[in-house]
Amino acid sequence: xxVKYFLILVAAIFLFAPTGGVSAxxxxxxxxxxxxxxxxxxxxVISDVEQPGDTTKTTQEVSTKETTNAPDRTYLLGVPQYxxxxxxxxxxxxxxxxxxxxxELFRPKDEKPLALNxxxxxxxxxxxxxxxxxxxxxxxxxxxxxxxxxxxxxSKPEKxxxxxxxxxxxxxxxxxxxxxxxxxxxxxxxxxxxEIYVRGSCKIGDRNxxxxxxxxxxLVIGEGTAVIRWVDGDRDIEIKEGCRLGVSVASTxxxxxxxxxxxxxxxxxxxxxxxxxxxxxLSEIRVKNISDTTMVISKEEIILPPRTNISNDIVTHQxxxxxxxxxxxxxxxxxxxxxxxxGSRIEGNLFSERNVVIEAGCTITGNIFSQGxxxxxxxxxxxxxxxxxxxxxxxxxxxxGNVTIYGYIMTEGEGKVL
Amino acid sequence: xxxxxxxxxxxxxxxxxxxxxxxxxxxxMNRIYGEQRFYYQDIFDSDLPFLSVLIPxxxxxxxxxxxxxxxxxxxxxxxxxxxIPIDDHSSDGTWRIxxxxxxRYPFIKPLHRTTGDRxxxxxxxxxxxxxxxxxxxxxxxxxxPPRCVLRDLAVCFNDPEVGAAMGRVVPVNTSQNLLxxxxxxxxxxxxxxxxQARHNLRLVAQYGGTVGGxxxxxxxxxxxxxxxxxxxxxxxxxxxxxxxxKVAYANRxxxxxxxxxxxxTRSRQIRRWARGHTQVMFRYFIPVIRSKFLSAREKxxxxxxxxxxxVPAILFLGIADSVALFFLGEINLLTGxxxxxxxxTCNTFGNFAPFYQIGIASFLDGSRQRILLLPFLVFNFLFSxxxxxxxxxxxxxxxxxxxxxxxxxxKRFRRSTT
Lengths: 418, 418
Fold this sequence. Notes:
- The complex is a heterodimer of chains A (418) and B (418).
- Chain A has three domains: 2-106, no CATH class; 126-273, no CATH class; 295-417, no CATH class.
- Helices cover 22% and strands 35% of the residues of chain A.
- Chain A is built from seven helices and 37 strands.
- The two termini of chain A are 68 Å apart.
- Chain B is an alpha/beta fold and 418 residues long.
- Chain B is built from 14 helices and seven strands.
């Protein structure tokens, strides 16, 4: 309210001040006293300069006559009007930056607190569960036993085809959500533009394009298949060679991934990469008694000789290298690279501000976290059965064959099974 | 001679302002164009530490049940968790609420303090003695933590270098009045840009005493919180840094808080913060410079962070200095310097989060309309200048007089939890 009237008042002053003011003569004797001598002096000057018969006017004359003809300066509240106007303009300039703020303050469009989801809980099966819930809420799918066509209200109505068991032939394109009550297979080069939900087991053919897929049974995805968004499964998932795995692939059981697959996020218990020739069989590492648990902080590069056995947490500002067959029951942090050479075992977490390289045959029982890339060599194991651990790398993850990861692997960069 | 000193001081003020201007400009640019470091919240880890969550309360019957409801709803395993609300000499119904919750939830173990000095730092010292957890998390009573906060904070302690963790604070009562909206902008700038940029650049991120936590063994090693220091969070931050530990900042671990709704409450709050922060500055200025664990840029940032509440006092004195020089007829010198002071000041201290920094923070938060309120920060700036200077002087007198420091609780305004 007050802003509106304030603005009207300012506008009124601007509009009416120049003409609506009271003249100096009417308002102020001081005004008369100051204006009169100016006129007097002006006429005196004219008589001094003007010559008889002179038709051209000197500059002095022109300026003097203009002075004579100038309108009387007016006063407002005893203050010369031009000063008032100057002040008002100044005020306006000061106020201008505040005007949009006044509008937002009194007619707010953005006054609510930043929205936080108070019930958000991190879940590796988030996509699958959300889709499952949408179907259940929209169709009551738990109770659907008969094939047919249904409509699901999302942002727009979506057609859902419910089938008993499905077989999609080669090169076919499906434009509707598929809900399969039993098993499902597809031929090669099929394209699914909407989501698929399979209650039984599922086998996707080679070079398919999938938007999203949830499978309650075992799932096999054929070679060269492209997942646009996600794949989620309640049982074993097997991914064949050369697949692009979209945003997320998650299974609560085994997730086996073949060569040349790319990914952003994967979850499996465990995640297994393709079988390859194993590295040389490693000898057992003898573990000494662990007693010292203090932390070592170093600004130097640390290179630990082969078969080192340590039990201190280590933080180093430089690179750290564990030479072959070392053992550490410790957490390791490096501002640069961490390199764990062949056959080493780290019972702890690895944190690197740059890259982490885990060479063949190593075991890391904790998490691996890197602000750079992580490279995981042949026959490496991360985590252990019955537990969930993570490999997080900002810029990329490269994984070789025979790798076992109990839990989660995620990157913002390129994730690749080599 | 006196005039020369006054002139040198003006130069010093300009230098200090320019340094802070540069610092915050770097932070702002980092948030827009720089590389953003990962926090640890993407880690899935089944091995979670035992957490002790402390909630200091003094006459908090308006808010006590809200935070306890939120924390009992957390997705953290309850067998790895204990909640210890600390009834700190309450004279209202707080104790009754705590006992009711303790009867319903076995993991809620209230601590009733009726003897000893009141105050957050004293309450925490007492409570830590009875905790079972190796990791201590702290929430102020007016906070409303989402479900995932405990897990996301706990997971960062896998990093052996992390001594404390800090989440982001988001005001919940933004829509109340101009003050709450200004404080919302200020918080946004302080966390979304300032803290996150310090995390990105590996500078000194600050533990804020709430929505955060620390390792109990480190606090024990440091002798607990000093009862004479009323900002125990800042003290802990610098205790950790000078001893080689870091504070992890988690921008995505967000939690609602209640900000003061009237200027009187705000003045007391900011005066208390300034006083406590300055106490810490006097104590840790030299240790930060001498610490062998801090890099050069951490030391510079640490000094600037320590001095941040001294700057309004420096600036205030600078303004008085410039007035004195004006009346001494030395203003000619200042015709070039004054505009610099005004410009740099105006851009630098929109109450500790410069205007451009707050603008960028709002932009990153997707809050476009509230940016329109930015010019109103000038009022908060002037207000804070006055009360922060008073807080600074309080701290100076604390040092000189060794008087007893009394902790004043911030008034609550809670109407409902919606």
